Amino acid sequence: MALYAELHRHLGGSVVPRVLWRYLERSSSKLLSRFADYSAFEEFFTRSRSTLDEYLELHTLVESVQNAESLPYFIYRLLRGAYIFENLAYLELRYTPYLRTPKHLSQSKRIDKMAEIVEVVGQASQLQEYPIVTSQILCMHSRLPYEVNKAIVDLAAQNTKYICGIDVAGGDSYYADRLSEWISLYDYARSLNVKTTGHLYETTAGCYPELLPYLMRIGHGIQIPLLYPELLKDVAKRGQCLEVCPTTYLKTGTLEDIRQLKLVFDRCFDAGVDIAICTDNAGLHNVRLPFEYENLLTYDIINFQQLQACQDAAFRHAFAWPYGQRPASLLNGLLKPDPMKALAMRDN
């Protein structure tokens, strides 16, 4: 029974270690030579890192094997797991299409190839056997030049069939030197009616209030309630939603204990700021969305009523969810007995 929405999942981090290992085996990848066996491979991918930069290096490795030919293999297995094991009804996949194009090509040719990558991901996501509503968020990247990032915004505006918004990723500590550039790109995106989110206020080095007015959702954003709670009033006024990914902050060394998130949730609920609970990199973490829910409940970070509020918020802030209600509400309507039919059955 598909009931949940996932708003923040990276294509590069969504591949579970076992699936990636089998792909590398089948393709006789040289990467396997770095590991003695699968156990060593899994431990390498799922262990915690000291910093966000160190953690993001894992994406570079996965991106190197994700291309137009291999993406259908990974996406099929991603959606199968999301539907069967996570009960997802809605999934937004985010990634940087430029980083899935052949490295030997020139920049202009790689930009041209991005549309093909979007088409491959879009086609591969249309699976009748696993009916999840999917859409793509294209990530601009902090280490890519302006021309590439602008082309990513243009592609998002041109292909609304498969793309529902844009993001900026690549490490939030790298935005500072190009802040005016990011502002202009987001302003440009909004002028094209492209929906926006962005990795912001994830770490203490990624706090840029100048970017907040251009975002419809905030990727992570946990440092706002932790360090700058005075900003929550404006976040609520703008109707922005935080995409909180609990396991990530332990894996990147951003937080020492998951219970530190209680202050995040408490201050957001008090200020009327919505939170969508997400996985970020479910494959690299070896976790699924229901585990994130259970973990927050187990540590008394939220209660069941607050969990439901977060689940509702995820559908309400989803960029491409086509219905006015979440699936549970639709299902309740189907299961609600018709009083006239019930009366007729009783009379018979």
Describe it for me?
The protein has one domain: TIM Barrel. 47% of the residues lie in helices and 13% in strands. The chain has helices at 17-26, 38-46, 52-63, 71-86, 107-124, 146-158, 179-191, 223-227, 232-237, 246-251, 261-271, 282-285, 289-298, 304-316, 327-335, 339-347; strands at 4-10, 88-95, 133-141, 163-169, 199-200, 217-220, 241-244, 274-277. The longest helix is centred in the N-terminal third of the chain and has 18 residues, at 107-124. By secondary structure, the protein is an alpha/beta fold. It is built from 16 helices and eight strands. α6 links the parallel β3 (133-141) and β4 (163-169). The two termini are 33 Å apart. The chain has a four-stranded parallel sheet with strand order 1-2-3-4.
State the distance separating the first and last CA atoms. 33 Å
Return the string of H and E elements: EHHHHEHEHEHEEHHEHHEHHHHH
The helix tally amounts to 16
CATH superfamily: Metal-dependent hydrolases
Strand order of the largest sheet: 1-2-3-4
Number of E-state strands: 8
Note the main sheet. 4 strands, parallel
Cofactor: Zn(2+)
Domain Adenosine deaminase: 5-319
Family: Belongs to the metallo-dependent hydrolases superfamily. Adenosine and AMP deaminases family.
GO molecular function: adenosine deaminase activity; metal ion binding
Keywords:
single chain, 348 residues, alpha/beta, TIM Barrel, four-stranded parallel sheet, 16 helices, 8 strands, 13% strand, Ado/ade_deaminase, A_deaminase_dom, EC 3.5.4.4
